[in-house]
Amino acid sequence: MFTRKMMVIAAVFAFIVINAIAIFLSARHLSPSSGFRQIGIWVVSPFQTILANAIHSVESIWTRYFFLVATEKENEILRKKLAECVNEDSRCKEIELSNARFRKFLDFKNTSSVSYLAAEVIGKDPSPWYKTVVIDKGSSKGVAKGLSVIVPEGIVGQVIDVYENSAKVLLISDSNSAVDAIVQQTRAHGIVKGNSDGKCILKYVSRKEAVNIGDTVISSGLDSVFLKGLQIGSVTEIIRDNSGIFQEIVVSPFVDLEKIEEVLLVLSPSL
Amino acid sequence: MNLFQRIVLILLLVVFQTTGYYFIPELKNFVNLSCSFVVYAVLFLSFGEGLFLVLLLGFLMDSITSGPFGLYISVYFWIVVGFRPFVTMLNLRNIHALQFLTGTAIILENAVFFVVTSLLKPETVLSPHFMKGMIFQFLWTVALSPFLIRFLNAMDLNHKTKVQLK
User: Fold this and answer.
1) ipTM rounded to 2 decimals
2) Residues 80-109, chain B, touching A (beta carbon < 8 A)
3) Which chain A residues are closer than 8 Å to B64 by Cβ?
4) Cβ contact (<8 Å) for B15 and A48?
5) Can you tell me the distance from the alpha carbon of B10 to that of B56, in angstroms, rounded to the nearest whole number?
């Protein structure tokens, strides 16, 4: 009744359908894929750490010994100080604005109680379709899923997968990322989402809200993931369609997400 | 190369593509090493060994990516299964054939990722910046992967000669 050729075609078609279903179950986290991933990461991450350290060592030798040693060091210190100052400036502005709005309430939360864990980036997602990085700290160091990841310049992303000695961080530029945010100058509220070009989009901001090019976008703290007042980026473009109730705001992240080498994980946020 | 050496090669390839490419900015959007290896496996390895190595490569890539688990395994599996009959029939080995096969492999890989990403997130938009990166990677791979594949094959032949001499 059925020729051999038809049977082969039917088998291939059935296999494609099963394959597609398996991928969509995996995408919806309905299949036990994390165990397999754990094995793969366990095999790959030590070698990633070795290669990352080797590259850092070569870079370090090149920059420290072959180029002006003193200048390099001074530059490094100044850069750190500048980053701290930028962050401090943002924090002060935030406090100033809060002060003006809540004069009667001066008992601000003390963010210094927050503890951090430093980690090094050891790899990136092999696919350009997803924006994640692998860091060299995992559950053995207290890293947990959902922790926020920052650098002095601002927000980097959020931990999405944790393994024993490594973890995966979803960058804010990934389309699956979402950060509850406000525009620092005008207090316009929205959600910062990733975009495929490495920038972010501040969505769900009412058309009535005034937002200007160059304004700073900071975390609102309402998502219970990121502390309030952390810098995200600056407004570079405002898209207001003739119809619709929202405007879309293009945000250029302060952090160069393509070149992060060290990050800080916020271990005990006092949100 | 024997099977163990090929497994080590796959591991190094994955590590270099995920860590080396990240820390050396000049290599951003450089050759897609994994697709090149898949084409090498289709052309020069037995079906069984090629499939095993390609599935291993897909497994490691799936472990690192944040996309749905099994996507790389599936893509590489279908490239091997789909390319094999043509390669056997047409005896494709010259540089242009290698360029054509690696180019097709990259297009297939990205097409599958695009379809899956779009289905999971309908608002997915491909920005010009993203497309530019993909085109650069495509061109680099098409230009250089034939040499890489031939180099791997030359290593194989060298290993076989040494074994025969022993």
Assistant:
1) 0.87
2) none
3) 40-41, 44, 123, 125-126, 134
4) yes
5) 8
Q: pTM to 2 decimals?
A: 0.81
**Residues 18-57, chain B: which have Cβ within 8 Å of A?**
18-25, 28-29, 34
Q: What pLDDT, on the 0 to 100 scale, is given for residue A189?
A: 92
Residue B29's H or E segment, with its range, is none
Contact between chains at A196 and B129 (C-beta distance less than 8 A): yes
**A257 CB neighbour count, 10 Å cutoff:** 22
Measure CB to CB from residue B20 to each of A51, A129, A174 and give the nearest one.
A51
- Chain B residues with CB-CB distance to A37 below 8 A: 62-63, 69
CA dist., res. A226 & res. A224, Å (int):
6
Whether the Cβ atoms of residue A136 and residue A122 lie closer than 8 Å to each other: yes
Residue pLDDT, tens place only, B93-113: 778 888 899 999 999 999 999
How far B164 CA lies from chain A's nearest CA (Å)?
Answer: 33
Cα end-to-end distance, chain A, whole Å = 69
Return the amino acid letter for B162.
K
- CB–CB of A195 and B125 under 8 A? yes
In angstroms, the Cα distances linking B45 to A96, B32, B33, B151, B159 are 67, 19, 17, 14, 14
* Average pLDDT rounded to a whole number, residues B106-134: 86
For residue A6, the one-letter residue type is M
Residue A51 burial by Cβ neighbours in a 10 Å radius (0-12, 13-18, 19+):
buried
Alpha helices in B45-165 (DSSP H): 47-64, 71-90, 95-120, 128-165
H or E element that contains A156: strand A154-162
**Tokens representing residue A128 in the block:** 């350009």
8 Å CB contact of A160 and B63: no
Residue pLDDT, tens place only, B36-81: 999 999 999 999 999 999 999 999 999 998 888 889 999 999 999 9
Determine how β-strand A148-151 pairs with β-strand A262-266.
antiparallel
List of residues 6+ apart from A51 with CB closer than 8 A: A122, B15, B16, B19, B20
Half-sphere exposure of A144 (CA within 13 A, CB side): 8
